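User: Please predict the structure of the protein below. I'd like the answer in structure-token form so I can feed it into my own downstream comparison script.

Assistant: Understood. Taking the following sequence of 99 residues as input:
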Amino acid sequence: HMALQSGKEALQSVVLSCFSAILSGNQQQMKDAEEELKALQVTEDFGLVLAEITVAPDGPVAYRQLASVILKQYVKNHWAVLEELDETQTSSKVIEPVP
């Protein structure tokens, strides 16, 4: 029941179906799924969903590995470590989302 799912559960369901398509070996399905995952990167819970899939003890290993690779790319592409410019502040680095 899609209406009963939270946004995060619905997103996880879509991500897992994309993984299934990517792992299917069908070139067109893989291409479509990769495009869909790219589009999903702007959704609020995308990183969280990938992290949850990565650490799910009962999840298929192939899905967990794929989630970890995509999560690593996602973090690299969407988060930046900004070097501290003002020495008077306490932390040396600030992590902020890239707009």
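That's the full token string. The helical segments are 7-22, 27-40, 46-55, 61-78.
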